[in-house]
Each structure stands twice: as C-alpha cells, then as structure tokens.
What we know:
The protein is mostly helical. The protein has seven helices and no strands. The chain has one domain. The radius of gyration is 30 Å and the shape is elongated.
Amino acid sequence: MSYPDQAPVFRPAVTSARRPAVVTLAAAVLALMALGAVAYAVTALLALGGTVDRFRTATAGTGADDVNAVVTLVRAVTIVSAMVTILVGLVLVGLAAGLLAGRRGARVSTWVVSGLGLLGGCCTVAALVGQRAAPLKVGDAGLLPLLGEAYPGWWLPLNAGLSVAQMLGYLVVAVLLALPVAHRWFGTRHPVRPELPPENPYRLHLPQGPWPPQ
C-alpha cells in the first residue's frame, strides 16, 4: 500500500518578538513631521490673502507697473509650495507605515529622504540668515523689500524654527534607524521558503505501466 503525500509545510516569516522602541519612535517622529508639514502648508495659504493686501497697500503710491505680476508670482509660488509640502507630508506618512511594517526598502528610503531633508533645511536656514543679515534696500530691489515687509512679523521666525526642527527630526530618525537593535530587527524580517518534508520511507513505489500488471 502507499501513503498519500504530505502537504508542503509553510513556515511563517521569521520576525522579532517585538518591534524595537527605536523603530516605533522613528515612525512617530516622521508622522509628527508630516503633521507639521500639512499645518505649515495650511498656514501659508491662510496668510497669503493678508500678505497680498498689505503689499498692494504699500505699493499704492509708488506708481509701479509690476504689482499685479508680483502678486501673481507670489500666489503661484505659495500654492505650489503648499502642494509640494503636503506631498512631502504624505511621503513621510508612507515611510512611517513602512517602518512599522518592517520593510527594508522603507528604511533605506527614509535615509535617502532624511539626507535630502537635511540638505534642504540647511539651504533654507542659510537663505533666512542671509536675508536677516543683509536685507535688500528699496532703491536696490524695487518691489522686493515691500513684499518682504508685507509678510506677517512671525513669518520669518516661523520658517527658521521649522527649518531647524526639520533638520533635527531627520537627523534623529536617521540615527534611530542606524542603531544595532533596529538593524537586527530589519535584518530578520524576511520570508522563509516553504520546505517539503522528507520522503516517506514506507511509501510503496509501484511500477509504471498498465494496471494490473500483465
């Protein structure tokens, strides 16, 4: 007699018993940064109307012909920047979800995004410091100084503070994901191929051909 073949044994993916706290913290920081990005985009859109009104009032007696062009440019730049900021926030949420799921690609992508974020934050801080250290004069730049004065007084400090916080957030996330405990956890989260059981030694191998044999 013969015994039926046993079904292949499927082993679950090898995972750590618990997600390391550093990975959870890194995902939480990314989620907090995403929330801050969305809040900043909404704030910029809300402040746009008042900025345009103050700019038009400041340029009413100058007789400049490029006021409408500058206003259109400011609106376009603000809207595009808000859309890009919201998109970055969505990317950060996706990276946070990937980290919590233990995906290696999310870890590498987070390092890449963190590097780009640090570079962008450094450029923004340098531009803000340069603007504060050497402000443009009215006679040298036409409408640009009036546009700068049209923004709320808290606008420049807010941008500087968010840029510094962004840099620190990306740095903290990159360091947390580089810790040995996070490296081990991501290294063990990979599937194992199903293994077939050893052949049954008591299985009866019947001859090939017509049955019953002649």
